[in-house]
Design a protein that fits this description.
This protein is of the alpha+beta class and 284 residues long. The protein folds into 2 domains: 190 residues, Gyrase A, domain 2 (2-Layer Sandwich), CATH 3.30.1360; 67 residues, Elongation Factor Tu (Ef-tu), domain 3 (Beta Barrel), CATH 2.40.30. 17% of the residues lie in helices and 32% in strands. A 9-stranded mixed beta sheet has the order 1-7-9-8-3-4-5-2-6, with helices on both faces. Strands 10-13-12-11-14-15 form a 6-stranded antiparallel β-barrel. The radius of gyration is 19 Å and the shape is globular.
Amino acid sequence: MPTAILADRAIVDVSGPDAEHFLQNILTVDLAALGEREAKPGALLAPQGKIMFDFLVSRSGESALRLECRADIADDFVRRLMLYRLRAKADISKQDQVVVSVSWEDDSAASQSDSTVRDSRFQQPVFRHYGTAPAASATEAGWHAFRIANGVAESGADYALADAFPHDVLLDQLDGVGFKKGCFIGQEVVSRMQHRGTARRRVLLISGASDLPEPGTDLVASGKVVGTLGSVSGKTGLAIARIDRVKAALDAGAVIAAGDVTVTPAIPDWARFTYPEVAGAEDA
């Protein structure tokens, strides 16, 4: 069972009698549907609907929730949560020197400790460990190769914060948005995209004829940019792409390339969205 330590992660704790109610009213994820040993993806949005902070949320005790996020955004995340707290009875703090690790491809990690939770973004058994964990037997690069192969995007590696809607990065497909739970910050914009079916930027799996170029490289078809490459592991990568433009290129038999490398895009097999049936590639 591969296990890797994730050095770039941090934990924000939110606890107290109003903790869940407070977070339920501002975050995208529906905490009422969060299991005891489960980690779900979620986001805190700007009022305009774009992702300001992304995270994995899990329960860490009675009236206590654990938000795992990138270490470099944790302090800003805490400050933003405190700004929204107002009179809610909730304590917000960042854990110091916490060890975050992840195990994948095996279900034997499920009973490791009370600080082990299943990462619900994956169809296969994937477990996050906080503090106590099996000994590391793999590298972060190995973990990211697995994540990429499964079509799971993360901020920093695949998109910039304040530059993507939840639909762009498949949070709507990963149960990271509670469309039926009521209001949250940015809810009106995100719900409109959902009900109108207007999401056109999506995460796609990218397979290259040879090793892919560096993240940030444009995907180009017939001289037009159709997407941008994100995480890369050898010949495999992720890209956020305009699926209408990708569909038009595929229908026309046009070559899609990232730099000098010919690539083949694919929708992750677990995703529920499809390529659009109508043209719209020329729209802004």
